[in-house]
Design goal:
The protein has a seven-stranded parallel beta sheet, with helices on both faces. A six-stranded parallel beta sheet has the order 10-9-8-11-12-13, with helices on both faces. It has 404 residues and is of the alpha/beta class. It is 50% helix and 16% strand. It has 17 helices and 13 strands.
C-alpha cells in the first residue's frame, strides 16, 4: 500500500514513537509519505530524527497563498464535497468564534494535503493524535481525500473530548487505534456503541536499540534516579523535587537527573534554588537517544510521578534496559507496570513517592535485577515496534477490504 502519515509536529523529540512505527510499516513492505502540519523545531538531536525532518513535508511551510490556491481549485472542481468538508469542519469546531476560525484554517490545510496526496496516489492516511491532525484528516476525507484512521494517545484528547469533537472523528474514521486498554475505554466513552468495533488497541513500540542493547546490572554503588520527561505540568516534577527535599532532610544520599525541556524549566530552577537542591538534582536538558540510554544504565531506578498520561514510552525504554521504575497508577501505566517490575504509587501522593524512592535506594541488588528482568521481558512482549506496526497495517488492510 501507499500510505501517508500526518502529525501536528513531526519529527519531534517527544514523538520518536511515530518514527519507529513508520519504520516498522516500511519494514513490512509498504510505502509511507510523511506530513506534518507544522515544521520541525530546531532542537532535534538524534540523527534519525534529523533524517526524518528531511523526508517530511510541512503543510504550513507552503504558505497561505498555496493553501488558498488549493482550496479554490477544489471548490471549483468539487463544489458538493467542498460544502461537505466545510460542514464537518464546522461540526468539529464546536462553539466559539476562535474555534471556527481555527477549523477554517484546518479546512485550508486539508485542501493542500488532498492535492498533494492525490499527486502521490496515497491510498490511506493515518494521523497521530486525536487533536488537529485527526481534524484535518477528517476534513480531507469529506473533501474526497483517502480514507483515514488515527491513533489516540492521551491525555490531551481525554481532557477535552467534547471540544475536540472526538466522537465525530471516530465516526468518520475507518478505525481508531488506542495505545492501551484504558485509552480504548475512554474512546468508547465518547463514541456510540455501534462504533466500538472500530476502536483497536495498538501499542507504541520502542527503538530496537533499547532491546538489542546488552543489559547491565544496576551499579552496586549507584544512588542515581533518572527522570526523562517534558518539563510540563502533567509530569508532576514539582512533587518530585519536594520528595527529594524530604529524602535529603531524612539523611538519604542520592542524586536525580531530569532529562528534557519545556515551559516549566524556569519554575523548576527556582524550586531547586529555594530548596538548595542544585547539588542533588540536575536539569540535563534535551539529550539524544544514546545519551538517554547511558543515563539509564548509570541509574538505580527510573522515576516519573505523572499526574496525566497515556502510556509513556520512556517507561518502556527504562524497563527495556532492565531498570525498575517508580511511577503513578494512572491511565495505561498499570497495564505495563506493577510491583513485579517497580513501584506503582497513587498520583499526587508525596508520601508514597518518598516511600517508593527510599525503598528503591535500600533494595538489595537481587531485587533490582529481578524487577528489571521482568520489566524487560514485558516490554519485549508488548512493545515491539515492528510487530505493532504490522497490527496497524493489518487494521488498515482489513478495513479497506470491508469497505469495498
Amino acid at each position: 500500500m501507499r500510505l501517508a502519515y500526518l502529525c501536528n509536529l513531526y519529527p519531534a523529540v517527544s514523538h520518536s514513537f511515530v518514527r519507529r512505527e513508520i519504520e516498522g510499516v516500511e519494514r513490512v513492505g509498504h510505502e509511507v509519505h510523511r506530513f506534518s502540519l507544522r515544521p520541525a523545531r530546531p532542537d532535534l538531536k538524534d540523527e534519525a530524527d534529523l533524517s526524518e525532518a528531511g523526508r517530511t513535508e510541512a503543510v504550513l511551510d507552503r504558505g497561505v497563498m498555496a493553501l488558498l490556491g488549493a482550496a479554490i481549485i477544489l471548490v471549483l472542481s468539487r463544489p458538493g464535497k467542498s460544502l461537505s468538508a466545510l460542514t464537518i469542519a464546522h461540526r468539529l469546531a464546536g462553539p466559539g468564534l476562535k474555534q471556527k476560525f481555527r477549523h477554517l484554517a484546518y479546512w485550508l490545510e486539508a485542501a493542500w494535503l488532498i492535492r498533494r496526496m492525490e499527486a502521490l496516489k496515497i491510498e490511506h492516511l493515518h494521523a497521530h493524535f486525536g487533536t488537529n491532525p485527526a481534524a484535518v484528516a477528517a476534513i480531507a476525507h469529506a473533501w474526497g481525500g483517502p480514507p483515514f484512521s488515527f491513533t489516540v494517545h492521551g491525555p490531551d484528547e481525554f481532557d477535552a473530548p467534547m471540544a475536540l469533537g472526538l466522537g465525530a472523528k471516530i465516526a468518520a474514521a475507518n478505525f481508531v487505534a488506542a495505545i492501551s486498554s484504558y485509552g480504548r475505554s475512554q474512546l468508547m466513552r465518547w463514541s456510540a456503541p455501534n462504533e466500538w468495533d472500530k476502536i483497536e488497541v495498538i501499542r507504541c513500540g520502542i527503538d530496537q536499540e533499547f532491546l538489542e542493547t546488552q543489559t547491565r546490572r544496576v551499579p552496586t554503588d549507584s544512588a542515581e534516579f533518572v527522570c526523562v520527561a517534558r518539563l510540563s505540568a502533567q509530569k508532576g516534577l514539582p512533587l518530585l523535587i519536594a520528595a527529594c527535599n524530604r529524602l535529603r532532610a531524612n539523611g538519604e544520599q542520592f542524586s536525580l537527573t531530569i532529562v528534557g525541556d519545556g515551559e516549566m524549566r524556569p519554575a523548576l530552577e527556582e524550586d531547586l534554588r529555594r530548596h538548595k537542591l542544585e547539588d542533588v538534582i540536575s536539569l540535563a536538558g534535551v539529550r539524544t537517544s544514546a545519551e538517554i540510554r547511558e543515563h539509564l544504565h548509570k541509574a538505580r531506578t527510573f522515576v516519573l510521578p505523572s499526574f496525566a498520561e497515556g502510556l509513556p514510552v520512556v517507561i518502556m525504554e527504562a524497563l527495556a534496559l532492565s531498570r525498575p521504575v517508580i511511577t503513578t497508577a494512572i491511565a495505561g501505566i498499570p497495564e505495563l507496570v506493577d510491583d513485579e517490575c517497580g513501584w506503582l504509587i497513587p498520583a499526587g501522593s508525596e508520601d508514597a513517592l518518598v516511600d517508593a524512592m527510599k525503598s528503591a535506594l535500600h533494595a538489595p541488588p537481587e531485587e533490582l535485577a529481578t524487577k528489571g528482568a521482568i520489566g524487560r521481558e514485558r516490554v519485549r512482549r508488548m512493545h515491539d515496534a515492528t510487530r505493532n506496526a504490522s497490527l496497524l497495517v493489518d487494521a488498515i488492510a482489513s478495513r479497506r477490504l470491508t469497505l469495498r
